[in-house]
Design goal:
Elements lengths: L10 H10 L6 H12 L4 E4 L6 H12 L9 E4 L3 H14 L8 E4 L5 H9 L4 E4 L1 H9 L10 E4 L2 H6 L3 H8 L7 E6 L4 H10 L4 E4 L10 E7 L5 H10 L6 E4 L3 H13 L4 E4 L5 H12 L5 E4 L1 H4 L9 E4 L6 H8 L9 E7 L4 H11 L4 E3 L4 H18 L10 H7 L5 H21 L27 E6 L9 H11 L8 E5 L4 E6 L3 H7 L4 E2 L2 E2 L2 E3 L8 H15 L19 H18 L35
Parallel strand pairs: 1-6, 1-7, 2-4, 2-5, 3-4, 5-6, 8-13, 8-14, 9-11, 9-12, 10-11, 12-13
Antiparallel strand pairs: 15-17, 15-20, 16-17, 18-19
């Protein structure tokens, strides 16, 4: 193990390294820096996120360029604006004693004129996203015809994001005799192609095994019913009071939704996805960095820029479509030598994906159970006790002490502690007191969208009969959307929907029975009463096939996300444009379907005898948490 001195770095750089508090080089730095300093060679380095790649190319580049010249000598391409800014900042720190150094960041979403002005002042190093870089080249705002060094940082990500053509275009404006240094976490075909095409006899460096995920990260999965996903997420967060996490969803819409739900439930959460403006994204990232946000919910694309140390947990709310992407997700934690946990909330239909990921990361997942209500209550109580124990006393209270003491004159210490704790603690206690076990055992039947549940045995569900069916323009999906909409239920609260010609069946949890029946006592649609009754049919006949089909549909539509809102039960919410869009859509559906001929309606107007009953309770049963600062 060498020191930074031994790598051959100049005193200016070594001084900066001391200021930064880096004590010894990381593996990729140890391997890359000496060769890059010594030789004018191309380089391909495979290293995970968080292994210190910026310094691995940054120090050699800073040492090799001529600071006294104002010519652009180094070009670093990176996939996102966030990364671009991070690299720029890091390089400025590394080069703080290099007088006259000018590093300029070039990225979309900001004034191109201002960036051009910065470049014109004489930027020895440009750090750019491919899109904006190409733009600037086309407008003759930069000159990269004399660069000596080009870096392709996070090459796999850039190619994933479709920058192949931009990159090749940009490189065609650079001289042939430059050196190219390519850094990537993984080595898919496309990266190998780029390496072949643009590099000559590169030095190859691999840190750790190829495609192996960071060693400080442990991997866990939690098997739950698909409809319990959101509850599971909350429990995982609640069981880790000090959590500082990134939650990954597959679609922008799910990302927005999950974040909104968490915020509504009192968590300090924020969303990061491509539908937000650059300004909104910057604000969210800033709050996350400052720890005002404890849980950042993000899409894969948006999260590429996340380069925050100390993330304790990565939670895969849904698994990515490509198992390779998992590596990028889990690499957000366990950075800079810290440990981290990557958790996957998985439903039974996806369990095989765990196996393919294990093959890629060459590590085993540990199967764990979603913490029980009792566990969480205990963890929260102890966290609270610790917090109180370590809180610095505010002596402003002293002057009120007498009156407070008076009030508690008859209360002994134990009693007082209990009362005091109850103030904060009751919320959790009340919520989790009657909570059920969310973990599913691997041997039970499939749970696709709640579809394959074993109705014969289940006592927690109610099966209903409803007097609308295919003739009314419903299929199982439309009926489910309709029910979920009018009853204001979450996606997974209605399941086992089985649509027949002129009537249908569906299930909810037994707890919702009262609400469902009450709602439909007097529900008229298109001047016709929609009637719902508890069915004697437990759902065994005919349902199986339909449900299997549904499972397939679900998987196919996974990426669209329109049926992936995970509203907790009984929750009324008005937020989210996605939500509203969905509503509009089902309204459309309804007007379509009700224009259908309804002549032969067997169960028409069999309106109920329950009409007198009052509207059911629909209050949310979730705990409100105090927002953390
Ligand atoms: P990568 O590009 O491989 O994802 P970064 O270059 O962003 O990793 O480095 C990750 C973090 O580790 C940064 O905060 C960086 O300042 C820090 N770091 C880099 N090199 C060292 C080192 N030798 N010792 C301690 N911390 C380091
Ligand atoms: Mg990096």
């Amino acid at each position: 193990m060498s020191t930074f001195q031994e790598l051959g770095l100049s005193q200016d750089l070594l001084n900066a390294i001391t200021d930064l508090g880096f004590t010894k080089p990381s593996e990729v730095q140890e391997k890359a820096i000496p060769v890059l300093l010594d030789e004018e060679r191309d380089l391909v380095a495979l290293a995970q996120t968080g292994t210190g790649k910026t310094a691995a190319f940054g120090f050699p580049m800073l040492q090799k360029i001529d600071i006294n010249s104002r010519t652009t000598q180094g070009l670093i391409l990176s996939p996102t604006r966030e990364l671009c800014l991070q690299i720029t900042n890091e390089l400025k720190l590394y080069g703080k004693y290099c007088k006259g150094l000018n590093v300029v960041a070039i990225y979309g979403g900001a004034s191109i004129t201002e960036q051009a002005r910065q470049v014109k002042k004489g930027a020895q190093i440009i750090v750019a996203t491919p899109g904006r870089m190409k733009d600037m080249i086309n407008r003759n705002l930069v000159d990269i015809s004399k660069i000596g060094y080009s870096v392709l940082d996070e090459a796999d990500e850039m190619l994933n994001m479709g920058f192949y053509e931009d990159i090749t275009d940009i490189l065609s404006f650079t001289p042939d005799d430059k050196s190219t240094w390519l850094f990537s976490a993984t080595m898919p075909k496309e990266v190998a192609t780029i390496a072949k095409k643009f590099m000559y006899d590169p030095i190859e460096i691999t840190v750790g095994n190829k495609n192996e995920s960071t060693s400080q990260v442990s991997h866990e999965y939690y098997l739950v019913n698909a409809r319990d996903r959101y509850q599971a997420l909350k429990r995982l967060s609640d069981a880790n009071p000090e959590i500082f996490s990134v939650v990954f969803c597959r679609t922008k819409r799910d990302t927005q939704k999950v974040a909104e739900n968490l915020i509504e439930d009192g968590y300090s959460a924020g969303a990061l996805h491509g539908d937000l403006s650059q300004n909104q994204r910057d604000l969210v990232m800033k709050s996350f960095r400052n720890r005002q946000i404890q849980t950042l919910v993000a899409t894969d694309v948006a999260a590429r820029g996340i380069d925050v140390d100390d993330i304790t947990h990565v939670i895969n709310y849904q698994l990515p479509d490509e198992p390779e992407i998992y590596t990028h997700r889990s690499g957000r934690t366990g950075r800079a030598g810290k440990t981290g946990i990557s958790m996957v909330i998985v439903s039974k239909s996806e369990i095989r994906k765990i196996k393919s990921i294990e093959r890629i990361i060459k590590k085993q997942f540990e199967k764990k159970d979603i913490p029980s209500g009792t566990d969480i209550v205990e963890v929260q109580l102890m966290a609270l006790a610790n917090k109180i124990h370590t809180t610095e006393t505010n002596h402003e209270i002293d002057k009120h002490l007498e009156s407070i003491n008076e009030l508690f004159a008859d209360t002994n210490k134990d009693e007082l502690i209990k009362k005091f704790f109850s103030v904060e603690f009751n919320r959790f206690y009340n919520y989790y007191q009657k909570s059920k076990d969310l973990t599913v055992s691997e041997s039970r039947g499939s749970d696709r969208d709640g579809g394959g549940r074993d109705y014969g045995k289940s006592t927690n569900d109610t099966r209903y009969f409803i007097n609308v069916g295919r003739k009314d323009g419903f299929d199982w999906m439309k009926l489910k959307d309709f029910l979920k909409e009018v009853l204001e239920l979450g996606r997974d609260d209605v399941f086992k929907v089985d649509v027949k010609d002129s009537f249908s069946f569906f299930n909810t949890e037994k707890e919702l029975q009262e609400k469902v029946l009450a709602f439909f006592t007097d529900y008229k649609h298109d001047s016709r009463f929609v009637n719902v009754e508890v069915s004697e049919n437990r759902g065994r006949s005919g349902g199986g096939r339909r449900d299997r089909g549904r499972g397939r549909d679900d998987r196919r539509s996974g990426g669209r996300g329109r049926r992936s809102d995970n509203n907790p039960r009984g929750d009324r919410r008005s937020s989210g444009s996605g939500n509203r869009r969905d509503r509009r859509r089902s309204d459309d559906n309804r007007s379509d379907r009700h224009s259908n001929d309804r002549a032969d309606r067997k169960f028409n107007d069999s309106r109920g005898d329950r009409r007198s009953s009052e509207s059911s309770s629909s209050t949310s049963d979730r705990p409100r948490r105090s927002r953390r600062r």
